[in-house]
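Team,

Forwarding the record for the chain on the shared tracking sheet. I've put the sequence and predicted structure together so nobody has to dig through attachments.
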Amino acid sequence: MKLVVVESPAKAKTIEKYLGSGHRVLASFGHVRDLPPKDGSVDPDHEFTMQWQVSPDRARQLKAITDEAKNADTLILATDPDREGEAISWHVQEVLRQKKALPANVQRVTFNAITNSAVTEAMKHPRGLDEDLIDAYRARRALDYLVGFTLSPILWRKLPGAKSAGRVQSVALRLIVDREREIEIFKPQEYWQVSATFETDGQSFTARLVQLDGNKIERLTIGNRGDADAAKAVVEAGRFTVASVETKPFSKNPPPPFTTSTLQQEAARKLGFSASHTMRVAQGLYEDGLITYMRTDGVDMAPEAISAARRAIASRYDAGFVPDRPRQYQSKIKNAQEAHEAIRPTDFDRPRAASGDHARLYELVYNRALASQMASGRLERTTVELTDGAGRAVLRATGQVVLFPGFMVLYDEGRDDPQDEEGARMPAMRQGDAPLKTGVDATQSFTQPPPRYSEASLVKRLEELGIGRPSTYAATLQTLKDREYVRVDKSRFVPEESGRLVTAFLERFFEKYVSYDYTAELEEELDDVSGGRLQWQKLLDDFWRDFKPKAGEVMDQKPSEITQALDEFLAPWLYPPRADGGDPRVCPQCGNGRLNLRGGKFGAFVACSNYPDCKYTQKFGQGGDQAQTDGPTDLGEGILLKSGRFGPYVERGDKRSSVPKDVPLEDVNAEVAERLLSLPREIGPHPETGKPITASIGRYGSYLAHDGKYAKLGSTAEVFETGMNAAVAKLADAASGAGRKGGSSREPIAVLGKHPNGKDVKVMEGKYGPYVSDGTTHATLPKGADPKAVTLDEAIRLIDERAAKGPAKKGGRRGARKKAK
């Protein structure tokens, strides 16, 4: 009997069907061992010896594997074809060796797709374990442990409110924080564009002013309304004829098939998937035999796959869509390994498969891979210049025409900041033509700061810098969210105050270890280990020799010394310049104290130096809330609509008011802004107490206030519409507790459909958060998941994974917390 070990039960079931009798296929459910989260798991004093521990939730799987191994004559380790897969195989082998259950014959096989042909072919070519890949895994795991278990205690003791730090995690966080700093110091600059619309042969087009009175008009040349109106008047008075028509053909080549990171980027742009969700869905497609292995930075496909793609193109389109020669791609990404194929469908004759999110991601993979072998698109760019009779103004219009779509008929790559690349279709014109001018506009704009990172653009930036590995990005970004170092607003990362503080601390005291260049160099050294060019213990020794004394030096400093250093480091952000030119550090309450950063039990804050005589405090980072992230919009009546770190707000003079989330920005005009700035609104005196009842908007939404008591309102509209009778009734209900929920509802949030077992799959709200259930097995949703956005496929997967782990331990979360304490 041959025992085959893979990672997942779904994969095990499929492969056992392919291999037939004489084979027993079992799943390890991923890693079976890890470094225990305690001091001493890695011993730098004894050649970085590691104390591995069997994961408690893998004991059951390991026992089943051990029992089968005792009766097997051959062990075939068939885990994933990458460093993590090699490490899992190594762990299984080591556990069986320790239990004296290791068969005499041990083989390692890898396959890039879970299809009958790929698996049976792989079984014909076994090999031994790759020691270099295992060493690279050990080096990476030890590095992450040493950084995390050295820095985290320093953070806990020296930086109140901080939770953890990590080698790649902290650098990714720094990217987000650095981008926020760029946004905050950005000064919007006003500029105007003057353009005219024309019509010829029934087709209209727009041309913008590029030259006035012999002077070139750049983007920022016209900086105020007066100059814009003067330029507009010249264009309005002019009679324009076509001075030149320039046409240039160009081609557009298809992008390569997906790598792990480009799949994460494109799924975020086009499908709205998080990186972690993309990888979960891709894992399911891989285990179902629909796509090749999804953790790769290779960009080319196997020759037989390229041939299959070219046949599929020829059958779907005419011969012009098939290029003369197959396309070959080479990665431009720093430190790319290209150890595996790009991500592609296993069968190009199957353009659609699966359902729900699986179907959407499969279609994306299929279309990208097929398009990568299609002909280039052929386009034509046309530039037309028009001049007026007086020679004062020159206008320019540009457009693009698709002559032959090529691959674009099937696929066009998304962009993080989309622009209309194709432009408008231009009518045919010749020199001397005089199109009819139908209108002239002068449009005000403001320069914009660089955009915050989305998941797609952050993954792209990490990859460009050579930081981390594609297989780790999803987990890294999820950790930043779980630690609440960042929040996601409109699909963009915004650093929380705790994230800014941790980043400032690491930049100030561990600058080398959060620098982009150093982290990328360390990745190169890890790649040298996996390639057999560097000994893994030497890499760790070189790192630890510098890192350990630096950590000890910081640990020896007093918390007050740390806070003082951070106060100086963060001063430009904590104490931004005042509008009146005064000292931003002067206490606004007592007028003579100095503001300083301090650490407290619940985190950092800014306080007056005259404490306890002056008890003025402000939340950490509050001084920077005037940072502007978008150009202001003039609403009239002296009111500006702006966007700050905490969202949009309206401002007139020194008064400002946030725009509530239930008020669409497009509805914010001078009248709405005036009402927001006038809050709180006094409804009138309470009929019993004679004290005023007011309606306003606070941190937690709309509310009523009366004599120190409050009642929640349902919407912003109610702030301005609630009358005396309704206000008195709401305050009375709030005082008596009427309407409060008496516990979690047993009504489902949603009924998604049927489980393969025939039971209804529901989304429920539980005491500890939302979960999915088939009535027998309950599976908690991942932290931050939207219970209303869960798909049937995802719910079934979570339920099946929960069922495979066996019954939950007695005590549940409460018991686990008590045990942890």
